[in-house]
Design a protein that fits this description.
Blueprint lengths: L34 H4 L8 E6 L8 E5 L5 H15 L3 E4 L2 E5 L3 H10 L4 E3 L3
Parallel strand pairs: 1-5
Antiparallel strand pairs: 1-2, 2-4, 3-4
Length: 122
């Protein structure tokens, strides 16, 4: 039986030398300028809240976009909003999704926290 050769990479499998690494560019998070890590907001900075059901088998979801927070603060905000609404949800791809139709409650809560939140869509 023939022996397998290692691929020509440097052989590094895991390292904690630089801490967390950006999944997009591969640099340390402290040096990263990618929009996913840096929490950069595209657009005018206004938080948009809308109701969505397309592609979710008829289930309604409240979607919150353009929040100017880093991913960890976004996850913390998502947790607090989910508790306030009394339902489940997630924070992914720079947006928060809360199960159910809670648009008015979320807009009021975000405005109370100092965000410029607006209802988007119909």
């Amino acid at each position: 039986m023939a022996k397998r050769k290692r691929d020509s990479g440097d052989g590094l499998v895991y390292s904690t030398d630089h801490g967390r690494m950006c999944p997009d560019c591969g640099r340390p998070v402290d040096d990263c300028t990618c929009s996913t890590i840096a929490g950069a907001v595209t657009g005018d900075g206004r938080v948009r809240v809308r109701r969505e059901s397309k592609g979710r088998k008829g289930k309604t979801v409240t979607v919150i976009e353009s929040v100017a927070l880093d991913p960890f603060a976004l996850a913390a905000l998502a947790k607090e909003l989910k508790q306030r609404c009394g339902s489940g949800g997630t924070a992914k791809d720079g947006r928060i999704e809360i199960q159910g139709d809670h648009v008015e409650l979320v807009v009021d809560e975000l405005r109370a926290r100092g965000h410029d939140a607006r209802r988007a869509g119909g």
